[in-house]
Amino acid sequence: MVLEAIVNPKMAERHPLRMFLLGLLYATLGLLLALWLFTGYASMVMVFLTVIASLPLVYNTFKHEETMDKLIHDEKLLMKEHGKVLLYLMMLFLGFVVAFSILYAILPEPTVTTTFRSQMETINAINNRMTGQTASFGTFMNIFSNNIRVMFFCIFFAFFYGAGAIFILTWNASVIGAAIGNLIRTKLAELFSKMGFLAASNYLHVISLSLIRYLPHGIFEILGYFIGGLAGGIISVAVIRHDFGTKEFNHILADSLDLVVLAIVTLFVACLIEVFVTPALFHVVGGTLAHS
Question: Residue 157 above 80 pLDDT?
Fold first, then answer.
């Protein structure tokens, strides 16, 4: 495949920032092609096209990390190796989010309504479910249990479908991008209606507000999903290579379990931020914007 020749795990490790640009490219092309070829189903087709573009890199990453598990037996060195991979995968994901956010914010409203229909239905369902909930232990456990469920879906998809976890993560990127883009459009519309184009000076403030609303907990949340997906992908490759029952497989299994535990801890931190930190930050920055 051409995409497989363009980028590989070693190249991605050396230049993680390029993965951000690649994420921008993949998501933008996926959305534009979906609008061009499958307008009525663009909200899902753009996710599939973005996933297809990412599959060679993600699958080769799982193969590379499974090989590293065989070669490296020092757990600290192994986690350092995994850290490099998680960094460039997160940069790829952030590229998706930024592309979807920008496109949502700048495309004409009728086009946005069609292109992000499924994403907005998901956002509305989440908002309706969270309406009236306050920063409490019950809210925390509700969000945490849901995130754990998504993490196990990532492990499941990565194990049974190879790089399948990237579909769940790309879908999440499109939902987060739609949420950020929608918030930017809404706040800018409010500013322009009140102050006209003089409010354009608050443009960066609006973007900051959008990022504070979703990114502080979102970074940790998606990192947890990537860690879980990496664990499932490594085991999947080991089984495909017939390593089952060997000493190397036992080491790979132990490393994957460590990754699952790390993913759970990461999601725990994400929930703490989402329930107790983000609402306070959003309230402070939102209040400042309202009085500016």
Answer: yes
The mean pLDDT of 90-118, rounded to a whole number, is: 89
- Write the single-letter amino acid at 52: I
The span from the CA of 167 to the CA of 113, in Å, is 22
DSSP at 241:
T
Residue 264, both tokens = 């759970």
Closest Cα to residue 166, out of 236, 71, 83? Answer: 236
What would the two tokens of residue 284 be? 């402070």
For the question of whether the overall pTM of this predicted structure is more than 0.85, the answer is: no
Higher-confidence residue: 207 or 81?
81
CA 40, distance to chain mean position in Å, is 24
Per the structure, the count of domains in the chain is 1
Domain that holds residue 283: 2-291
Q: How many CA atoms lie within 13 A of 137 on its CB side?
A: 0
C-alpha span between 225 and 260 (Å, rounded): 9
Q: How far is CA 250 from CA 235, 243, 246, in A?
A: 10, 9, 6
DSSP 3-state of 78? helix
Whether the predicted pLDDT of 100 surpasses 90: yes
